Amino acid sequence: MAHGTQGLATARKTYYLALTWTEWEAVLFASGRYQWATHLSNEMSYTPEEPPSGVVVHGYESDWWDFRQAVESDISGGHSPYPLAGSELADKLDTFLGQFE
C-alpha cells in the first residue's frame, strides 16, 4: 500500500459501452457460441435504453479485462476476433478495448 493511503477505500471507475439494438441482437445471437458474446451478455451488467437507443453495457475495468481475455480465448481457438459480430460492431469493440492496453 502506498504511503499515506492506508485505510482509504479506492473508488472503482465504471466504463460504459453503448450498443444499438442491432448490435445487441448480434451479441445475443453469438452468445453461447463464442466467448466474447457470452461474456458481454452473461457476465457484464447492461441497461436497456428506450428504442431506438439500444443497450448500454457497463462494468469496472477488471470486467473489461476479463472480456478481453474472452476475446483472446476465441482467437486462440482459431477464430477471428468477434465472430458473428459484423465489421462495425467489431470495430466498435476494438476501439473501446483500446483504452485498456
Strand and helix layout:
Blueprint: E1 14-19, H1 21-30, H2 35-43, E2 45-48, E3 55-60, H3 61-76, H4 87-97
Antiparallel strand pairs: 1-3, 2-3
Helix pairs in contact: 1-2, 2-3
Helix percent reads: 40-55%
Which geometry do the CA atoms define?
globular
Sequence stretches where pLDDT stays below 50 over 5 or more residues: none
Distance between the amino and carboxyl termini: 24 Å
Regarding quaternary structure, how should these chains be classified? Answer: single chain
Mean pLDDT across every amino acid position = 86
Structural class call reads: alpha+beta
Looking across the biggest beta sheet, what order are the strands in?
Answer: 1-3-2
Q: What's the helix-strand series?
A: EHHEEHH
Q: Please summarize the sheet with the most strands.
A: 3 strands, antiparallel
Strand content: 15-25%
Number of helices: 4
Compute the gyration radius: what is it?
Answer: 15 Å
- Report the count of strand segments: 3
Indicate how many domains the architecture comprises. 1
